[in-house]
Amino acid sequence: MGKTKERTRLKDSFGRLKDESFYFNDITQFFNRKDKSNAFHVISEEVCSDLDFEELFMFLDRTNSKVGQQYLYHKLRTIPQGDHALSYKERLINIFTEDEEFRIETQLELSKLNKRGAYSLADLFQSEFVQAPKWFSIFPMLSFIGVTSLLFSFAQPNLFIIFLATFSINSIIHYWNKKTVYNYIGAIPHFFSLCLVAKRLYKKDVFKQLNPKLEGAIQEMNQIRRKMVFFRLESSMQGEYGIILWWLIELLKIGFLLEPIFLFSVLRRLEHQRKECEEVFSFVGEIDCLLSVASLRSGLSSYSFPSLNASRVSAEQVYHPLIPNCVTNSIDLVDKSILLTGSNMSGKTSFIRTIGVSVLTGLTINTCFAKSMIFPRLRLHSAIRISDDLMNNKSYYFEEVLRIKEILDASHDSSNLFLLDEIFKGTNTIERIATGKAVLSKLASPNNFVFVATHDIELTELLANDYEQYHFSEAVSENTIDFDYKLKQGKLKNRNAIRILQVNDYPSDLIQEAYAIVEELDVHYGVSR
Hints:
This protein is α/β, with parallel strands linked by helices. The chain has helices at residues 3-13, 24-27, 29-33, 45-50, 53-60, 66-76, 86-98, 100-110, 123-126, 138-152, 159-176, 178-185, 188-202, 214-227, 229-236, 239-256, 258-272, 274-298, 348-365, 396-410, 429-443, 458-462, 497-503, 508-525; strands at residues 41-42, 78-79, 306-308, 312-318, 329-334, 337-341, 372-375, 379-383, 416-421, 448-454, 467-471, 474-476, 481-483, 488-489. It has 24 helices and 14 strands.
């Protein structure tokens, strides 16, 4: 693609969703291997499943490089202790938004790292390297014998026999080493690009504050890059003449054992420069993430920055970014949790996910999908989407028990957000209500916020002192069911499940029997309506 067309594409795509494939096995590799011991909280696989994280990531991701994409994934799953450079990063986002020419020039640089092979860059500082064999010390000696015997064979032809013998030995070693070379050859051209992109970006004064000491790391990487030129030649040869040149270079590499000698020299250097390599990777990734956030915000109808408050969770006109034409809702809780009631499809679980998504993006990319949001720095835990573990012979209820136990253990620390949907629905009504009440009372401790959805109206009575009561409802007419998806204060008073059966032409005697049983159960459990 010509540079003019590429600039036009970048200009037109700003603020829009990506139109490309997402390779999550590659995208997640940097996050999976990254040391996260200093993080405030790491988002678990269970929370990712409950919040539809992959779909959310595909919506949020507007990065221009595979480095930025991997870094954004890590950023979204790692809530930091704090970000002292937040105001500076917001200034960069504003520059990207307002200065189109600067943004496009930055995108053009970053796009040099957008080939799929660039995912392997993190291997160069996160993976264990192949160690040189114990007999590696003979490689330089064989190389020296090959060089000298070939040179002096012009004066002493008998020495050519020594060269041929050495060449045969070197051929075995060379092709034995090919498997090791192939482990790294894919990353080498992209390592060149990473070094050059980082060097060019760091020349721009506006980026230097991201890492004022990065210049030394860039210089170290450039020294390694120069040693890798030898391998880059092989990866760049194409066409008929390229094949001929490749064969000539291959003969040189075999004769003088250049490939294993250079490779293990580079790996030794990289082994001692892992920190510098990751710093360069993170510098480029952070710039791409900030540019991605600028693009994301430009495509939103509304967003806000979070305000941190230790005792309050408040959201004004919050919406779920993955739901088209999503109905907005508002909530304001001070040292309280929320119990949501309502029928299926009325919006309970979607609202819980909506809160979870905006808390997550607010704490990671400083962007909430709401007119305004206030909350503490929270750890996210959830039990929304639970399934049987048939491979390990675990029932649905047992999986629930394990998940809720993890949540109870987490509640001992303060500053948690618990997102729960119909807990213990894998067991009978009486025990579900009893255990549900006990667990929810235990979770509703100071500095923890619980958002729980339930069909069990009985819990509204039992938890009246511990939880704020809200509900979603629908209007059932003679032949239709209408949902407004609006959050309403107070507990649900209308029961429409049986009415919905009636609308769908269930037998009248069945409907009458169901209503009669409901009245009996209400008396038995002392439920007020």
